[in-house]
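Example 3.2
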Amino acid sequence: MGTNYYWRLVSPTGKEVGQGNNDPKIHIGKTSARPAGKVAFIAAQDMGNVRRACQRDAYLMHQCIVNEYGRLYTGDEFLSMLRVCTIETDSIGTYFS
């Protein structure tokens, strides 16, 4: 069981369109439990690009990421969460849920 994370996108009409969209341009990745209490983050995007985006002034303190349950994260909060995860990169660019 895991949790999916997406870029929080807002259409010109004000409707949020990121959450639940598994397009790898919007879907950042998914956390997943691993043995011995470890947590992995299965990346759908290049994590170097994700980290750089999260560190930009516009995103660092802005709620730019949303998980599948609607919880919002600033770039800083998301990067802090990733610090405890093992990053798995073999799913970059793929559609998954």
